[in-house]
């Protein structure tokens, strides 16, 4: 809180001007220029950003990249001391992997930031200010404390101001408090300690929906309430996503395993008498075979494809892991105003002629014409281009009333104020008679009424009638509607418009209607095992009514906590309160919303937070996944978020959850796929050392599999669309690992050995067909040796082509999925086969990869082993499905 705001609010307008060295004529131009130097420009300071070169460098210096740098360095060292063994080409290939992966990750993040920058448009660019007694138009950034600004309906408040003169001012505080109902503001002193509630303060980033005023600027830039909340956002730490943690863990496990095996087999090779450089090449081969070089590029590309799909569905993903993180969410903390609702008032229900009626239904209009006349006449709306502009509540009433017969000329107004809590308008006809139309809070209007309208008949407002209207008011209020009373009385020619002896026309219940697709989206969240908790700045009754309407609350006695209650609770108490089956939060401030996020996280939840206001930004930053509204959201909220909804539809969040769950599943699919090929890449090296046979697979051929033929099918697995049941299961446990024991067992102990069997069988088939005998030594460029290693490579690729189909789901059979469901898979297989043929049957491929053309009979020999892998894996799935029933 800015302590100066409390002092200014308690002073009279004249004293406030004197305190800031200003006057009714405003500052002088020279004094404004001096203060601009002293206080700085009126802008919220953006958080410091790392330079682009540093961001790019980070993409090449994470742990997995360092392991690849080490492998490339070892390859270049080997090439220097023992040239001609393909080590130089290996080093170049690994460098290519590092560069492509790092550049792509950097470019994707840069593009998202650039797209987000285009959304920045919150504070006004120009504002009217009085200086040297004249009214000038200056940039909002040039405002200084002591300036006197002039604001009218529809204006965005450019700085924290204290009202000096005000006429019918009402301000929408939704961007700061989440409160959907505009608040009246006046120039009189106010002892309120909270600047958000002080009736004579206008705060930066809020919106004038009615009235006009002159206001004294007392805080600018980061000293405003807006800037204070922005600072909370900027100081909140970055949260590592579950996917980032898992990829880091998988990378370290696999990389350390590769290094450990490389060192271990280097030692083994030394003890069995291998020459140093042959042993060194063998160790590098073990490392390269165990490091899935395609893992990070494939993860990055898979996430990038998901972000592109989300962009087509109106969601901008700022950080690649955000999609998957949202898929792992267990709780969504959602704002009400503008997120679940349309941030637009509408008449939902009326109580007229002693009966409740829904506004969407038609009823005999003869019963409510006086009520509709009040709604149509009693307002301060403007119509600059034929469209109503002003207070959303008055717009809602005016729209509900529709066209009315002539009610006469407006000749006077008794304006609304916070004490009276009502407004009246006087109209006159040509014959001198007239009418007084009054609307306001029922407790303010009912005491002024002596009768009530039943159609055209006036009934006495006796005690029974008063109780009837009070019951109707309470019933509507308990359902979260904002209730207004409408009254009227005719005026004789020359009669004054005193607010006495009124005829009560009826009650109007207004609401901020839910978005039309939210109910279905909430139902999908329930089906997916997600808790959706409303956290709003609105009134508890209003919040509870909306929550019940959307089925967020389905029990008769939910827990409803206000921000004051949250402030008084210890972290442990709040954490225990969140264990309630159904809970919602109302009248919540920025700090309290962040406390709720942290309490959920302390319970082990993965928290997604939606919001659009400045008040939402700290919670968006603190949460596991922050989702901001792109259309109605503030700049600060969008900066803090991981995902920006370009259409502000809550349903888009559910689509993103579905995509995120599919991303995690898909990463597991291609992790199984690429790890499966590690075994047939390791086994040839083990056989080379232990059996003293020619090396069945060279290091460059391993890279041909990992970075060439396997890459596109693996990417296709990463692009698998969500299957039908993905939103009918609960969120995965927070501690569930990406690299699980069942996945490792399936890849390393089942699929991998089957591929190794086919690869070694093809290698020996070529050797024995040419008369090779055990113990014969083959030169590296011997045509027979080249054909044998090529056969081993070809058998691995064929097995992987079958493996990609069985990896589409760990339990469901391959025929459960249509090929046309993932066209990228067919393209990947076609390119994989094309690359294999280029490697085997072109001179360039033969030179680069040390291969030789194969006869058709070798293909025929390898194909049954690939088919065997598919058949046994489908049999395993069938057995597992049977046992699990």
From TrEMBL:
**Which superkingdom, per the lineage?**
Bacteria
Question: Which UniProt key words apply to this protein?
Answer: ATP-binding, Cell membrane, Membrane, Nucleotide-binding, Translocase, Transmembrane, Transmembrane helix
Domain (Cation-transporting P-type ATPase N-terminal) ranges: 7-80
- Regions crossing the membrane: 63-81, 87-107, 253-274, 280-306, 747-772, 784-804, 824-841, 847-872
Q: Which family does it belong to?
A: Belongs to the cation transport ATPase (P-type) (TC 3.A.3) family. Type IIA subfamily.
PANTHER family assigned to the protein according to its UniProt record, in alphabetical order: CATION TRANSPORTING ATPASE (PTHR43294:SF21), SODIUM/POTASSIUM-TRANSPORTING ATPASE SUBUNIT ALPHA (PTHR43294)
Q: What is this protein called?
A: Cation-transporting P-type ATPase
Origin organism of this chain?
Answer: Uliginosibacterium aquaticum
